[in-house]
Write a structure and sequence with these properties.
- By secondary structure, the chain is α+β, with helices and mostly antiparallel strands.
- Helices cover about 20% and strands about 35% of the residues.
- It has a three-stranded antiparallel beta sheet, with helices on one face. The chain has a three-stranded antiparallel beta sheet with strand order 4-5-6.
- The longest helix has 17 residues.
Length: about 150
């Protein structure tokens, strides 16, 4: 597989909501990314906000090639977990840092990714991009440092 340098998500905006019949609001995500230094803008619907974000990421150039052909050979999300930890019980929730962990099955291998952020959508996106870096053979991805918190799964 051709080797790439990086995927950098510049922003990810999701739209989601609730309706009584469950059919009025279609979750969607729009993201801007740099793929090997080239600016790319993609959007996609999903079952929920994270599914929409992952579907949008799957449209990025090198990632989209993983989803060509027979669906049985595509990467499959096997596990998705979010944990949160607050600095103090007095401000629990407002200063919590979320950690997302995803497990993806692709070509008879298991890949695990972790993302951390105060925003759970960002943590989920970072975890998925972490897995994609492994699948695509990118150089090691540098995760942003965590201030005032450490996560263990």
């Amino acid at each position: 597989m051709e080797e790439f340098e990086m995927i950098e998500i510049k922003y990810c905006q999701v739209l989601t909501g609730y309706s009584e019949n469950g059919k009025d609001i279609v979750p969607s995500a729009t993201l801007e990314a740099l793929v090997d230094g080239q600016k790319v803008l993609v959007s996609s619907p999903g079952v929920g906000p994270i599914d929409a974000a992952y579907n949008a990421i799957n449209k990025l150039g090198p990632v989209s090639k993983l989803f060509e052909g027979d669906k049985r050979t595509h990467p499959h999300l096997r596990r998705f977990v979010i944990n949160a930890e607050a600095e103090s019980s007095e401000t629990a929730g407002s200063d919590a840092i979320g950690a997302a962990r995803v497990t993806v099955f692709y070509k008879d291998q298991i890949y695990n990714g972790i993302g951390r952020s105060k925003d759970i959508i960002r943590a989920a996106v970072d975890a998925y991009v972490d897995v994609l870096y492994q699948i695509l053979g990118y150089r090691e991805r540098q995760q942003p440092p965590i201030e005032n918190g450490q996560f263990l799964f």
